Protein backbone atom coordinates (compact mmCIF):
# COMPACT_ATOMS: atom_id res chain seq x y z
CA UNK A 1 0.00 0.00 0.00
CA UNK A 2 1.42 3.41 -0.99
CA UNK A 3 1.45 5.95 1.82
CA UNK A 4 2.24 9.63 2.02
CA UNK A 5 5.95 10.07 2.81
CA UNK A 6 6.66 12.12 5.92
CA UNK A 7 9.51 13.31 8.09
CA UNK A 8 9.67 13.04 11.85
CA UNK A 9 11.77 15.36 13.99
CA UNK A 10 12.26 13.45 17.23
CA UNK A 11 14.52 12.25 19.96
CA UNK A 12 14.50 8.48 19.68
CA UNK A 13 15.70 5.65 21.87
CA UNK A 14 16.52 2.23 20.46
CA UNK A 15 18.67 -0.82 21.21
CA UNK A 16 19.84 -2.13 17.83
CA UNK A 17 22.42 -4.37 19.54
CA UNK A 18 21.66 -6.28 22.71
CA UNK A 19 22.33 -4.16 25.78
CA UNK A 20 23.44 -1.10 23.77
CA UNK A 21 21.24 1.99 24.03
CA UNK A 22 21.51 4.56 21.26
CA UNK A 23 20.01 7.97 21.92
CA UNK A 24 19.24 9.76 18.65
CA UNK A 25 18.76 13.31 19.87
CA UNK A 26 16.64 15.59 17.68
CA UNK A 27 17.15 13.44 14.59
CA UNK A 28 15.16 13.59 11.36
CA UNK A 29 13.56 10.34 10.23
CA UNK A 30 12.36 10.26 6.61
CA UNK A 31 9.68 7.67 5.97
CA UNK A 32 9.08 6.71 2.34
CA UNK A 33 5.89 5.79 0.48
CA UNK A 34 6.52 2.10 1.22
CA UNK A 35 6.59 2.74 4.98
CA UNK A 36 10.31 2.21 5.30
CA UNK A 37 12.96 4.40 6.90
CA UNK A 38 14.56 6.11 3.91
CA UNK A 39 17.00 8.26 5.82
CA UNK A 40 18.07 9.34 9.31
CA UNK A 41 19.89 12.63 9.83
CA UNK A 42 21.46 14.00 12.98
CA UNK A 43 21.55 17.78 13.57
CA UNK A 44 25.28 17.66 12.74
CA UNK A 45 24.66 16.16 9.28
CA UNK A 46 24.76 18.22 6.07
CA UNK A 47 21.32 19.09 4.82
CA UNK A 48 19.56 18.66 8.19
CA UNK A 49 18.08 22.16 8.33
CA UNK A 50 17.18 22.22 4.62
CA UNK A 51 15.43 18.88 4.89
CA UNK A 52 13.47 19.97 7.93
CA UNK A 53 12.42 23.22 6.29
CA UNK A 54 11.45 21.44 3.07
CA UNK A 55 9.27 18.96 5.02
CA UNK A 56 7.71 21.83 6.94
CA UNK A 57 6.96 23.70 3.70
CA UNK A 58 5.37 20.54 2.23
CA UNK A 59 3.37 20.03 5.46
CA UNK A 60 4.87 16.56 5.91
CA UNK A 61 6.85 17.36 9.06
CA UNK A 62 5.80 15.71 12.32
CA UNK A 63 7.68 17.37 15.14
CA UNK A 64 7.63 15.84 18.61
CA UNK A 65 7.28 18.15 21.60
CA UNK A 66 9.52 18.20 24.67
CA UNK A 67 8.84 15.11 26.78
CA UNK A 68 7.77 13.07 23.74
CA UNK A 69 10.04 10.32 22.42
CA UNK A 70 10.18 7.88 19.56
CA UNK A 71 10.66 4.17 20.34
CA UNK A 72 10.65 1.10 18.10
CA UNK A 73 7.37 -0.83 18.13
CA UNK A 74 7.10 -3.74 20.55
CA UNK A 75 7.11 -7.36 19.35
CA UNK A 76 5.05 -10.02 21.13
CA UNK A 77 6.71 -13.30 20.28
CA UNK A 78 4.06 -15.49 21.88
CA UNK A 79 0.39 -14.77 22.45
CA UNK A 80 -2.82 -16.82 22.32
CA UNK A 81 -5.42 -14.63 20.59
CA UNK A 82 -8.49 -16.67 21.71
CA UNK A 83 -7.45 -16.45 25.36
CA UNK A 84 -8.03 -12.66 25.45
CA UNK A 85 -11.36 -13.04 27.33
CA UNK A 86 -9.55 -15.13 29.95
CA UNK A 87 -6.79 -12.57 30.54
CA UNK A 88 -6.52 -11.82 34.25
CA UNK A 89 -8.35 -14.86 35.57
CA UNK A 90 -8.30 -18.65 35.92
CA UNK A 91 -4.70 -18.94 37.07
CA UNK A 92 -5.37 -21.16 40.09
CA UNK A 93 -4.32 -24.53 38.67
CA UNK A 94 -1.30 -26.09 36.94
CA UNK A 95 -0.90 -25.96 33.15
CA UNK A 96 -2.27 -29.41 32.34
CA UNK A 97 -5.41 -28.78 34.44
CA UNK A 98 -5.77 -25.19 33.19
CA UNK A 99 -5.83 -26.37 29.58
CA UNK A 100 -8.61 -28.91 30.14
CA UNK A 101 -10.64 -26.99 32.71
CA UNK A 102 -10.61 -23.44 31.32
CA UNK A 103 -8.73 -23.00 28.09
CA UNK A 104 -9.98 -25.71 25.74
CA UNK A 105 -13.65 -24.90 26.55
CA UNK A 106 -12.96 -21.21 25.82
CA UNK A 107 -11.05 -21.90 22.60
CA UNK A 108 -13.83 -24.24 21.39
CA UNK A 109 -16.16 -21.20 21.32
CA UNK A 110 -14.32 -19.86 18.26
CA UNK A 111 -16.32 -22.23 16.10
CA UNK A 112 -18.71 -19.25 16.33
CA UNK A 113 -17.33 -16.75 13.83
CA UNK A 114 -19.26 -13.81 15.30
CA UNK A 115 -17.78 -14.44 18.73
CA UNK A 116 -14.32 -14.73 17.15
CA UNK A 117 -14.70 -11.44 15.26
CA UNK A 118 -15.88 -9.58 18.36
CA UNK A 119 -13.04 -10.81 20.56
CA UNK A 120 -10.32 -10.47 17.93
CA UNK A 121 -11.28 -6.87 17.15
CA UNK A 122 -11.02 -6.01 20.89
CA UNK A 123 -7.74 -7.91 21.16
CA UNK A 124 -6.00 -6.18 18.27
CA UNK A 125 -7.17 -2.74 19.48
CA UNK A 126 -5.95 -3.60 22.98
CA UNK A 127 -2.53 -4.72 21.84
CA UNK A 128 -2.02 -1.73 19.55
CA UNK A 129 -2.94 0.56 22.45
CA UNK A 130 -0.16 -1.16 24.40
CA UNK A 131 2.36 -0.54 21.62
CA UNK A 132 2.49 -4.05 20.15
CA UNK A 133 3.28 -3.50 16.49
CA UNK A 134 4.06 -7.16 15.70
CA UNK A 135 2.44 -10.23 17.25
CA UNK A 136 3.10 -13.93 16.73
CA UNK A 137 -0.34 -15.38 17.41
CA UNK A 138 -1.68 -18.82 18.21
CA UNK A 139 -5.31 -18.78 17.05
CA UNK A 140 -7.54 -21.88 17.44
CA UNK A 141 -8.15 -25.06 15.45
CA UNK A 142 -10.82 -23.25 13.41
CA UNK A 143 -9.77 -22.12 9.93
CA UNK A 144 -12.50 -19.46 9.46
CA UNK A 145 -11.92 -17.81 12.86
CA UNK A 146 -8.14 -17.88 12.37
CA UNK A 147 -8.60 -16.21 8.99
CA UNK A 148 -10.85 -13.59 10.63
CA UNK A 149 -7.94 -12.73 12.93
CA UNK A 150 -5.73 -12.25 9.85
CA UNK A 151 -8.35 -9.97 8.25
CA UNK A 152 -8.68 -7.91 11.43
CA UNK A 153 -4.90 -7.46 11.84
CA UNK A 154 -4.68 -6.42 8.20
CA UNK A 155 -7.57 -3.96 8.49
CA UNK A 156 -6.23 -2.44 11.69
CA UNK A 157 -2.66 -2.40 10.37
CA UNK A 158 -0.90 -4.61 12.93
CA UNK A 159 1.98 -6.75 11.69
CA UNK A 160 0.98 -10.31 12.53
CA UNK A 161 2.07 -13.90 12.13
CA UNK A 162 -0.87 -16.19 12.76
CA UNK A 163 -1.24 -19.92 13.21
CA UNK A 164 -4.28 -22.13 12.92
CA UNK A 165 -3.58 -24.42 15.87
CA UNK A 166 -3.15 -28.16 15.28
CA UNK A 167 -4.13 -30.57 18.06
CA UNK A 168 -5.30 -33.97 16.84
CA UNK A 169 -4.34 -36.41 19.58
CA UNK A 170 -7.57 -38.06 20.79
CA UNK A 171 -6.12 -38.97 24.19
CA UNK A 172 -4.82 -35.52 25.15
CA UNK A 173 -7.42 -33.36 23.40
CA UNK A 174 -11.13 -33.39 24.27
CA UNK A 175 -13.73 -34.47 21.70
CA UNK A 176 -15.27 -30.99 21.75
CA UNK A 177 -12.01 -29.30 20.77
CA UNK A 178 -9.79 -31.32 18.49
CA UNK A 179 -8.87 -31.62 14.81
CA UNK A 180 -10.84 -34.54 13.34
CA UNK A 181 -7.61 -36.37 12.44
CA UNK A 182 -4.08 -35.67 11.18
CA UNK A 183 -5.10 -35.59 7.51
CA UNK A 184 -7.81 -33.00 8.17
CA UNK A 185 -5.49 -30.91 10.36
CA UNK A 186 -2.82 -30.83 7.66
CA UNK A 187 -5.30 -30.11 4.88
CA UNK A 188 -6.91 -27.26 6.87
CA UNK A 189 -3.48 -25.83 7.73
CA UNK A 190 -2.59 -25.80 4.05
CA UNK A 191 -5.88 -24.08 3.20
CA UNK A 192 -5.18 -21.53 5.91
CA UNK A 193 -1.68 -20.80 4.56
CA UNK A 194 -3.06 -20.25 1.07
CA UNK A 195 -5.95 -18.10 2.31
CA UNK A 196 -3.66 -15.82 4.34
CA UNK A 197 -1.23 -15.50 1.45
CA UNK A 198 -4.11 -14.58 -0.86
CA UNK A 199 -5.27 -11.97 1.68
CA UNK A 200 -1.81 -10.41 2.05
CA UNK A 201 0.19 -11.12 -1.10
CA UNK A 202 3.59 -9.73 -2.05
CA UNK A 203 7.15 -9.76 -0.79
CA UNK A 204 6.53 -7.78 2.40
CA UNK A 205 3.13 -9.02 3.60
CA UNK A 206 1.85 -7.44 6.80
CA UNK A 207 0.21 -10.70 7.82
CA UNK A 208 1.74 -14.15 7.43
CA UNK A 209 0.62 -17.71 8.19
CA UNK A 210 2.49 -19.85 10.72
CA UNK A 211 2.56 -23.64 11.10
CA UNK A 212 1.33 -24.23 14.65
CA UNK A 213 1.41 -27.64 16.32
CA UNK A 214 0.16 -26.62 19.79
CA UNK A 215 2.79 -28.75 21.52
CA UNK A 216 3.98 -32.31 21.17
CA UNK A 217 1.53 -33.73 23.75
CA UNK A 218 -1.47 -32.57 21.70
CA UNK A 219 -0.25 -33.87 18.31
CA UNK A 220 0.10 -37.28 16.71
CA UNK A 221 3.33 -38.25 14.96
CA UNK A 222 1.49 -38.12 11.65
CA UNK A 223 0.41 -34.52 12.22
CA UNK A 224 3.91 -33.43 13.29
CA UNK A 225 5.41 -35.04 10.18
CA UNK A 226 2.82 -33.55 7.85
CA UNK A 227 3.26 -30.07 9.33
CA UNK A 228 7.03 -30.18 8.88
CA UNK A 229 6.48 -31.00 5.18
CA UNK A 230 4.14 -28.04 4.88
CA UNK A 231 6.66 -25.74 6.61
CA UNK A 232 9.33 -26.74 4.09
CA UNK A 233 7.04 -26.58 1.05
CA UNK A 234 5.58 -23.18 1.91
CA UNK A 235 8.70 -21.76 3.61
CA UNK A 236 6.61 -20.83 6.65
CA UNK A 237 7.39 -19.88 10.19
CA UNK A 238 6.69 -22.58 12.80
CA UNK A 239 5.62 -22.03 16.41
CA UNK A 240 5.02 -24.42 19.27
CA UNK A 241 5.49 -24.80 23.03
CA UNK A 242 8.73 -26.43 24.19
CA UNK A 243 9.68 -27.85 27.60
CA UNK A 244 7.44 -25.46 29.48
CA UNK A 245 6.69 -27.34 32.71
CA UNK A 246 7.71 -30.54 34.49
CA UNK A 247 4.58 -32.21 33.14
CA UNK A 248 5.10 -31.09 29.51
CA UNK A 249 8.80 -31.94 29.52
CA UNK A 250 8.31 -35.39 31.08
CA UNK A 251 5.45 -36.19 28.72
CA UNK A 252 7.72 -35.75 25.70
CA UNK A 253 10.63 -37.64 27.26
CA UNK A 254 8.33 -40.57 28.09
CA UNK A 255 6.95 -40.61 24.55
CA UNK A 256 10.15 -40.19 22.55
CA UNK A 257 12.98 -40.96 24.98
CA UNK A 258 14.52 -37.56 24.22
CA UNK A 259 13.95 -33.88 24.87
CA UNK A 260 11.30 -31.67 23.32
CA UNK A 261 13.85 -29.77 21.22
CA UNK A 262 15.48 -32.98 19.92
CA UNK A 263 12.05 -34.48 19.15
CA UNK A 264 10.92 -31.38 17.24
CA UNK A 265 14.19 -31.47 15.33
CA UNK A 266 13.60 -35.14 14.52
CA UNK A 267 10.31 -34.15 12.88
CA UNK A 268 12.01 -31.36 10.91
CA UNK A 269 10.20 -28.67 12.88
CA UNK A 270 13.25 -26.88 14.23
CA UNK A 271 14.27 -24.31 11.60
CA UNK A 272 15.53 -20.72 11.32
CA UNK A 273 11.87 -19.72 11.20
CA UNK A 274 10.80 -21.66 14.31
CA UNK A 275 9.82 -19.94 17.55
CA UNK A 276 9.72 -22.11 20.68
CA UNK A 277 7.62 -20.73 23.51
CA UNK A 278 8.98 -20.94 27.07
CA UNK A 279 11.73 -23.60 26.79
CA UNK A 280 12.39 -23.39 30.52
CA UNK A 281 13.84 -26.87 30.81
CA UNK A 282 16.20 -26.88 27.84
CA UNK A 283 19.65 -28.19 28.73
CA UNK A 284 23.02 -27.41 27.16
CA UNK A 285 22.59 -29.94 24.39
CA UNK A 286 19.16 -28.51 23.53
CA UNK A 287 20.59 -24.99 23.51
CA UNK A 288 23.36 -26.00 21.13
CA UNK A 289 20.83 -27.69 18.86
CA UNK A 290 18.41 -24.74 18.89
CA UNK A 291 21.28 -22.31 18.28
CA UNK A 292 22.65 -24.45 15.42
CA UNK A 293 19.24 -24.47 13.71
CA UNK A 294 18.90 -20.71 14.25
CA UNK A 295 15.49 -21.18 15.89
CA UNK A 296 14.21 -18.59 18.36
CA UNK A 297 12.79 -18.65 21.86
CA UNK A 298 9.86 -16.66 23.19
CA UNK A 299 10.69 -15.91 26.81
CA UNK A 300 7.43 -15.52 28.77
CA UNK A 301 8.52 -14.61 32.31
CA UNK A 302 5.11 -13.75 33.76
CA UNK A 303 3.39 -16.90 32.56
CA UNK A 304 6.41 -18.92 33.68
CA UNK A 305 5.79 -17.69 37.23
CA UNK A 306 2.44 -19.53 37.13
CA UNK A 307 2.98 -22.61 34.97
CA UNK A 308 6.64 -23.34 34.46
CA UNK A 309 8.00 -24.84 37.67
CA UNK A 310 11.34 -23.32 36.61
CA UNK A 311 12.86 -20.10 35.30
CA UNK A 312 14.14 -19.86 31.74
CA UNK A 313 17.98 -19.79 31.70
CA UNK A 314 18.03 -16.47 29.86
CA UNK A 315 21.64 -15.48 30.46
CA UNK A 316 22.93 -18.86 29.24
CA UNK A 317 20.84 -18.50 26.07
CA UNK A 318 22.03 -14.93 25.45
CA UNK A 319 25.66 -15.91 26.05
CA UNK A 320 25.25 -18.44 23.23
CA UNK A 321 23.83 -15.69 20.96
CA UNK A 322 20.58 -17.58 20.66
CA UNK A 323 17.64 -15.71 19.18
CA UNK A 324 15.39 -14.67 22.07
CA UNK A 325 12.45 -12.29 22.35
CA UNK A 326 9.59 -11.67 24.79
CA UNK A 327 6.09 -13.11 24.78
CA UNK A 328 3.11 -12.08 26.89
CA UNK A 329 1.67 -15.61 26.59
CA UNK A 330 -1.81 -14.24 27.18
CA UNK A 331 -3.61 -15.67 29.11
CA UNK A 332 -0.99 -17.75 30.93
CA UNK A 333 0.45 -14.26 31.42
CA UNK A 334 -2.13 -11.73 32.58
CA UNK A 335 -0.60 -8.58 31.09
CA UNK A 336 -0.92 -7.46 27.45
CA UNK A 337 1.98 -5.00 27.88
CA UNK A 338 5.46 -5.78 26.67
CA UNK A 339 6.71 -3.00 28.94
CA UNK A 340 5.41 -5.26 31.73
CA UNK A 341 7.14 -8.14 29.93
CA UNK A 342 10.44 -6.23 30.17
CA UNK A 343 9.88 -5.71 33.89
CA UNK A 344 9.03 -9.34 34.52
CA UNK A 345 12.10 -10.45 32.57
CA UNK A 346 14.18 -8.06 34.65
CA UNK A 347 12.81 -9.15 38.02
CA UNK A 348 12.97 -12.85 37.14
CA UNK A 349 16.61 -12.48 36.15
CA UNK A 350 17.38 -10.69 39.38
CA UNK A 351 15.62 -13.33 41.48
CA UNK A 352 17.65 -15.95 39.63
CA UNK A 353 20.81 -14.21 40.70
CA UNK A 354 19.91 -13.68 44.32
CA UNK A 355 18.35 -17.13 44.65
CA UNK A 356 15.21 -17.88 46.58
CA UNK A 357 16.60 -20.02 49.38
CA UNK A 358 17.28 -17.57 52.19
CA UNK A 359 18.50 -20.36 54.48
CA UNK A 360 21.57 -20.89 52.24
CA UNK A 361 24.67 -18.72 52.65
CA UNK A 362 24.73 -15.88 50.06
CA UNK A 363 27.47 -17.46 47.93
CA UNK A 364 25.42 -20.65 47.50
CA UNK A 365 22.09 -19.08 46.64
CA UNK A 366 21.70 -17.94 43.05
CA UNK A 367 23.20 -17.79 39.59
CA UNK A 368 25.93 -15.15 39.29
CA UNK A 369 25.61 -13.18 36.06
CA UNK A 370 21.90 -13.94 35.64
CA UNK A 371 20.56 -10.36 35.78
CA UNK A 372 19.76 -8.55 32.60
CA UNK A 373 19.54 -4.77 32.51
CA UNK A 374 16.77 -2.55 31.13
CA UNK A 375 18.60 -2.12 27.79
CA UNK A 376 18.77 -5.89 27.33
CA UNK A 377 15.12 -6.22 28.33
CA UNK A 378 14.07 -3.61 25.78
CA UNK A 379 16.21 -5.28 23.12
CA UNK A 380 14.35 -8.54 23.80
CA UNK A 381 11.02 -6.73 23.28
CA UNK A 382 12.15 -5.08 20.01
CA UNK A 383 15.27 -5.97 18.00
CA UNK A 384 15.61 -9.40 19.64
CA UNK A 385 12.07 -10.34 18.64
CA UNK A 386 12.66 -9.03 15.11
CA UNK A 387 15.85 -11.07 14.81
CA UNK A 388 14.07 -14.21 16.01
CA UNK A 389 11.34 -13.70 13.40
CA UNK A 390 13.83 -12.61 10.74
CA UNK A 391 11.80 -9.44 10.11
CA UNK A 392 13.27 -6.09 9.00
CA UNK A 393 12.04 -4.09 11.99
CA UNK A 394 12.81 -3.63 15.71
CA UNK A 395 15.12 -0.60 15.54
CA UNK A 396 15.75 2.59 13.58
CA UNK A 397 18.05 1.91 10.65
CA UNK A 398 17.83 2.99 7.04
CA UNK A 399 15.86 0.41 5.02
CA UNK A 400 13.94 -1.05 7.98
CA UNK A 401 10.17 -0.90 8.28
CA UNK A 402 9.02 2.12 10.26
CA UNK A 403 7.25 0.40 13.18
CA UNK A 404 7.31 2.86 16.06
CA UNK A 405 5.67 4.39 19.12
CA UNK A 406 5.31 7.99 20.18
CA UNK A 407 5.85 7.81 23.92
CA UNK A 408 4.51 10.86 25.71
CA UNK A 409 5.82 11.30 29.24
CA UNK A 410 3.68 14.37 29.89
CA UNK A 411 0.21 12.83 29.79
CA UNK A 412 -2.03 13.11 32.84
CA UNK A 413 -1.35 10.50 35.52
CA UNK A 414 1.94 9.43 33.91
CA UNK A 415 4.27 7.44 36.15
CA UNK A 416 7.30 8.78 34.24
CA UNK A 417 8.55 11.92 35.95
CA UNK A 418 11.47 13.71 34.33
CA UNK A 419 13.43 16.53 35.93
CA UNK A 420 15.56 18.71 33.67
CA UNK A 421 19.12 18.99 34.92
CA UNK A 422 18.67 15.83 37.00
CA UNK A 423 17.75 13.13 34.46
CA UNK A 424 20.09 12.33 31.58
CA UNK A 425 18.61 10.96 28.33
CA UNK A 426 19.79 7.52 29.49
CA UNK A 427 17.85 8.01 32.74
CA UNK A 428 14.75 8.97 30.76
CA UNK A 429 14.99 5.76 28.75
CA UNK A 430 15.35 3.67 31.91
CA UNK A 431 12.33 5.41 33.44
CA UNK A 432 10.33 4.66 30.28
CA UNK A 433 11.23 0.96 30.34
CA UNK A 434 10.43 0.67 34.03
CA UNK A 435 7.32 2.87 34.28
CA UNK A 436 5.61 3.34 30.90
CA UNK A 437 1.96 2.33 30.67
CA UNK A 438 -0.41 2.29 27.72
CA UNK A 439 -1.47 5.79 28.78
CA UNK A 440 1.93 7.04 27.63
CA UNK A 441 1.54 5.63 24.13
CA UNK A 442 0.18 8.50 22.05
CA UNK A 443 0.72 7.19 18.53
CA UNK A 444 1.65 3.89 16.91
CA UNK A 445 2.95 3.39 13.38
CA UNK A 446 3.37 0.12 11.51
CA UNK A 447 5.14 0.22 8.16
CA UNK A 448 4.74 3.99 8.21
CA UNK A 449 0.97 3.90 8.73
CA UNK A 450 -0.41 5.53 11.85
CA UNK A 451 -2.58 2.82 13.38
CA UNK A 452 -3.41 3.90 16.92
CA UNK A 453 -6.93 5.18 16.81
CA UNK A 454 -7.79 4.62 20.44
CA UNK A 455 -10.29 2.09 21.66
CA UNK A 456 -13.89 2.92 20.79
CA UNK A 457 -16.15 3.19 23.83
CA UNK A 458 -18.35 0.08 24.17
N1 LIG B 1 1.13 -21.38 28.53
C1 LIG B 1 0.55 -22.23 27.69
N2 LIG B 1 1.13 -23.42 27.51
C2 LIG B 1 0.55 -24.28 26.64
N3 LIG B 1 0.93 -25.50 26.27
C3 LIG B 1 0.02 -25.95 25.38
N4 LIG B 1 -0.95 -25.04 25.20
C4 LIG B 1 -0.65 -23.99 25.97
C5 LIG B 1 -1.25 -22.73 26.21
O1 LIG B 1 -2.32 -22.38 25.68
N5 LIG B 1 -0.61 -21.90 27.10
ZN1 LIG C 1 1.54 -20.37 25.12
Automatic annotation (TrEMBL):
Top-level enzyme category? hydrolase
Q: Does the keyword Hydrolase apply?
A: yes
Q: Which reaction does it catalyse?
A: guanine + H2O + H(+) = xanthine + NH4(+)
Q: Does the keyword Cell membrane apply?
A: no
Q: Which UniProt keywords apply?
A: Hydrolase, Metal-binding, Zinc
**Pathway involvement of the protein, from the record:** Purine metabolism; guanine degradation; xanthine from guanine: step 1/1
Tell me which positions the record assigns to the signal sequence: none
Q: What does the cofactor section's free text say about binding? A: Binds 1 zinc ion per subunit.
Molecular function per GO? guanine deaminase activity
Annotated Amidohydrolase-related domain residues: 69-450
Main function? Catalyzes the hydrolytic deamination of guanine, producing xanthine and ammonia.
| Similarity-based family | Belongs to the metallo-dependent hydrolases superfamily. ATZ/TRZ family.
| NCBIfam families in the cross-refs | guan_deamin (TIGR02967)
- Please state what the protein is called: Guanine deaminase
Tell me what organism the protein belongs to: Aquamicrobium terrae
Origin organism lineage: Bacteria, Pseudomonadati, Pseudomonadota, Alphaproteobacteria, Hyphomicrobiales
Amino acid sequence: MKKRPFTLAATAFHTPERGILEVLEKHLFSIDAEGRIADILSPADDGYEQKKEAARAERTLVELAAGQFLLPGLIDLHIHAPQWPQMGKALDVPLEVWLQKYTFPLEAKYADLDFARTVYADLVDGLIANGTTTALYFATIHGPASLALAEICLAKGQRALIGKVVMDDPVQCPDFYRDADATTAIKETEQFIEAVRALAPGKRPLVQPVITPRFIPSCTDEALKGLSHLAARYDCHVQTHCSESDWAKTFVEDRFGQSDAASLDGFGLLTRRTILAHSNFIDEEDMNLIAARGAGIAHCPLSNAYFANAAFPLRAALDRHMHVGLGTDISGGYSPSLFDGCRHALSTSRMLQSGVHAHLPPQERGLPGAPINHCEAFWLATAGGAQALDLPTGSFRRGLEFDALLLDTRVAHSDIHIYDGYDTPEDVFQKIVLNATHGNIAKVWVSGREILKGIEPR
